[in-house]
């Protein structure tokens, strides 16, 4: 391979430059995903140890290289054990990438419209609701915490289930395809108590939490204010209008065949 330049005893080729660029991009990409969490600081520490270990091996410092390699091996194991949520979020993001899964049509305009109408009718009477809409792989573990009904999606059925005096209103409704798969389900809570300085109640934390761990959309109707929010990919959008909610669901529940591949970078924006 053609040598470009030398740094002391190190010979740098064009292949080495490409290798460094790819590794740098991967590390930067991972840092963007976990930025703002405690894991980010430990991740930076791990990078420093790996760089020092590489330099020690390049300089043939055998004892120092062995010590730093030992530390980095232990650090990687500790990173995996301590930061399972962040790693799980990374794997979920990889699973959402169209390059890693086939294109399937998961929803349609009729389903989006039914959910929108039900949400706004619940909002008008201030009946709280938490609806989880599955886009790709199912969330069997969550479904099993509630009561499976596997009923055809219907606006009046959604309203009836979330009527405050019914035994099934408490908890989350899971919708997959055109079926209400289960109701009264328990969701994992997000670790965030506030979002953009807005305090989160348990319903909003649950709706946000499940989107951090699975490829789903959560629709939350506030019992206190009647406002409607959407949680998706660990982000919360509040105070949606009827049109904005309908448009969002139509766009994000349906993956069209033959539309090309969306950029991988879109799925890893912080």
Q: Overview of this structure, please?
A:
The structure is a single chain. By secondary structure, the chain is an alpha+beta fold. It has two domains: 3-99, no CATH class; 109-256, DNA integrity scanning protein, DisA, N-terminal domain (YojJ-like (1), CATH 3.40.1700.10. Helices cover 47% and strands 19% of the residues. The strands form three sheets. The protein has a seven-stranded mixed sheet, sandwiched between helices. The chain has a two-stranded antiparallel ribbon with strand order 1-2. α2 (38-58) runs antiparallel to α3, α5 (109-124) runs parallel beside α7 and α5 (109-124) packs antiparallel against α9 (242-253). The longest helix has 21 residues, at 14-34. The chain is elongated. Mean pLDDT is 77; it is low at 99-107 and 255-270.
């Amino acid at each position: 391979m053609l040598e470009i330049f030398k740094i002391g005893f190190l010979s740098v080729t064009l292949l080495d430059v490409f290798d460094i660029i790819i590794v740098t991009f991967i590390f930067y990409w991972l840092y963007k995903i976990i930025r703002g969490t405690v894991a980010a600081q430990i991740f930076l520490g791990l990078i420093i140890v790996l760089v020092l270990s590489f330099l020690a091996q390049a300089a043939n410092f055998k004892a120092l290289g062995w010590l730093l390699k030992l530390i980095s091996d232990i650090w990687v194991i500790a990173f995996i054990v301590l930061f399972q949520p962040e790693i799980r979020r990374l794997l979920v993001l990889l699973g959402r990438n169209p390059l890693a899964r086939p294109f399937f049509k998961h929803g349609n305009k009729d389903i989006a419209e039914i959910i929108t109408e039900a949400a706004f009718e619940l909002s008008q009477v201030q009946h709280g609701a938490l609806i989880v809409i599955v886009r790709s792989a199912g969330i069997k573990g969550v479904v099993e915490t509630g009561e499976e009904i596997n009923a055809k999606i219907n606006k009046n059925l959604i309203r009836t289930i979330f009527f405050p005096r019914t035994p099934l209103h408490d908890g989350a409704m899971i919708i997959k395809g055109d079926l209400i798969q289960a109701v009264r389900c328990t969701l994992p809570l997000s670790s965030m108590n506030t979002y953009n300085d807005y305090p989160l109640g348990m319903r909003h934390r649950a709706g946000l939490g499940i989107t951090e761990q699975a490829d789903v959309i959560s629709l939350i109707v506030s019992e206190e204010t009647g406002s409607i929010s959407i949680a998706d990919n660990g982000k919360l959008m509040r105070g949606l209008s009827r049109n904005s909610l309908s448009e969002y669901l139509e766009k994000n529940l349906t993956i069209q065949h033959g539309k090309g591949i969306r950029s991988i970078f879109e799925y890893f924006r912080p």
